[in-house]
Fold this protein.
Amino acid sequence: MVKKLPKTDAVIVGVGWAGGIIASELTKKGLKVVGLEKGLERSTEDYYMVHDELRYALRYELFQDLSKETLTFRSDEKRRALPMREYGSFLLGEGLGGAGVHWNGMAFRFLPYDFEIYSQTVDKYGKDKIPDGMTIQDWGITYDELEPYFDKFEKMAGISGEENPLGPKRSDKYPTPPMKHSPQMKMFKDATKKLGYHPYTIPSANLSKPYTNPDGISRAACQYCSFCERFGCEYGAKADPVVTVIPVANKTGNFDLRTHSWVRRILHKGGKATGVMYTDLTTGQEVEQPADIVIVTSYVFNNTKLLLNSKIGKPYDPATGTGVIGKNYAYQVTKGAATGFFEDKEFNNFAGAGALGMVIDDFNGDNFDHSDLNFIHGGYLSLTQAGARPIQNNPIPKGTKTWGSEFKKQSLKFANRTLSVGAMGSSMPFRHHYLDLDPTYKDTFGDPLIRMTYGFEDQDRELAKFTAKKAKEILQEMGADHIDAMDELGPYDITTYQSTHNTGGVIMGADPDTSAVNNYLQMWDMENVFVVGASAFGHNSGYNPTGTVGALAYRAAEGILKYNKKGGMLA
């Protein structure tokens, strides 16, 4: 029997960056908010002196249990999708803070081009530049409209950075200075300047100095310990929801946080949501939480899965191109990289931080001429120094035997004599890349899993080759004696880690026929449901997505407060 609780003003599904920001903003204005998080509660104390690469990086301490909840994958519709039972291409965070706990901290702003990608591409190059099947569309919002929310996110998180020479206008500087420059970063900076490019320090959520944000939250500076990605920060120096926005919501007394709460359905009647149904994982009890407003802020795959299982919105049909829920799944093209080997130079590669590095945007977005290129958009090129931890790092030149005396000799020689220039390439949506419910496989409660249909396209292969060539040129200018660079981008491989930058499925726009949510991330089909996160992206940029997720969350929070007062569709 389902246990029914008293109604609340708003219920949030998933308490990571988006859920934490919205909880903070709503509770500060007096709304009573229930936050439902599937995983366990976490605090900074959980990470005290736990620099354990085996436990966190290789045994996935912070991530979802794939035996209970996963997704199925196929590269095209002719194949049968199979469940992802081991982690590979991306990592699904679970627990309070979500992926905001284990991220590296790179906090870029998407470019003005991203938000008007269809219009700007057609205006400059004509419709023929967009290949058949590519389903890019404008986002229903401009950079200028979103800029104040970027600024708000950066000040809350204390982002450390310097102005991007090729970036769009800003209303204010970053709240803290850029991070320290290592010798490796200086080499990249000098080389790219000599090549005529425009290097700048990566905007970082790893604080460059102690900082107190506008909500009064104080945090310590980064210690450059190298345990950022896949780890929680024991110092609280890396901005994450647990040390920034969630404490603000808790302090108001208006936030009821419930961990171990697996939301399985959004309940609705007469075209409006009435609340959610979840299972209390500690007791097995099914619980109904009525609410005036339902806010879905879990990860990309679960946002789409929850809407489809709740029968909200029209499912996307790739055969006709109609429907919106599951449309425009996109990923990231991160294989366009090169590694340089130095015979006579040694580097302290073991030191670093998640977002420590230098970057150029000369080949990102539409910052360069695409007239004679067989792709649109682009990506950034960077040298990052996240810290080469001992288990997962063993760089050797291509052609080296992977066993025996030669392997040992080269491993020891190049352990601290390699530098890599990586590319974070954009990902364009295609008609046959989408999410839907798997007809065969189910989660631990018997609900259908989400199914991902995705593979690399010619667009991705051309972009990867282009960025790999540029990365090689930079390493040559840096003085590398030997360079291994990618020649061809092979098929998408879900078994090999690339990035956790999944996007799309509940995309935003100005037209209910082609988008699921408006520019406040309010559902067109159900006005008291807001779906917030990277699921709203109509494509993925040549940047890490978190900064844009944060900006959209602040805008959605503003919209929810407006809706709470007046109701109706927001304009």
